[in-house]
Amino acid sequence: MCSITEIYGDLFVHCPPHVPLAHCISVDLHMSKGIAKIFKSRYGNVPFLKNQIQSVGQCASLNYQGRYLFYLATKRRFFHKPTYSSLAQSLRSLRSNMETLGLFQLGIPKISTGLDALEWFRVKEIIRDVFTGSHIEIYVFYL
């Protein structure tokens, strides 16, 4: 069964290095603010990711030194805001990718709640709905 555990701590410091990570991006992969900027500077590979994302709702993946990273396209342009529907669509794509790869753990920030301004209690409900029936353990890191 899917589980969601909230952990006070830095995603990049406190999440074990074998656990895949995911975060939200725009289709244009601008990634100039917030946690997306950190992902871009740490892991790069933007041209590789751009080849995987053509529309909102898709999920790009990157195997970076043995750790999977997932990029959820929740909006078209960096200055747009996502919708709960676009978030759900990208999470369904994430779940599919994880199941295909045989991955059962995931570390995320409180996705879409910072600069994107969605409400965490609704986002958490969507995560729970999308991952119900899976055996994926989700660790949500926040500061």
Description:
The protein has one domain (3-142): 3-Layer(aba) Sandwich (Leucine Aminopeptidase, subunit E, domain 1). The mean pLDDT is 96. The protein starts with a strand and ends with a strand. It has helices spanning 11-14, 34-43, 46-50, 84-101, 120-131, and strands spanning 3-8, 21-26, 59-64, 67-75, 105-109, 137-142. α4 (84-101) packs parallel to α5 (120-131). The chain has 143 residues and is of the alpha/beta class. The chain is built from five helices and six strands; from the N terminus they run βαβααββαβαβ. A three-stranded parallel beta sheet has the order 1-6-5, with no helix packed on it. A three-stranded mixed beta sheet has the order 2-4-3.
Residue fraction in strands: 25-35%
Major beta sheet, specifics? 3 strands, parallel
Radius of gyration equals 14 Å
- Specify the number of helices: 5
- The best one-word shape is globular
Oligomer: single chain
Give me the side-by-side strand order of the main sheet: 1-6-5
Order of helices and strands: EHEHHEEHEHE
- The span between the termini is 27 Å
- What's the mean pLDDT score? 96
Q: What's the CATH architecture name? A: 3-Layer(aba) Sandwich
Q: Mind telling me the CATH class?
A: Alpha Beta
Number of E-state strands:
6
- Per CATH, what is the topology? Leucine Aminopeptidase, subunit E, domain 1
Q: What structural class do the secondary elements suggest? A: alpha/beta
Uncertain parts: none
What is the helix fraction of residues, given as a range?
Answer: 25-40%
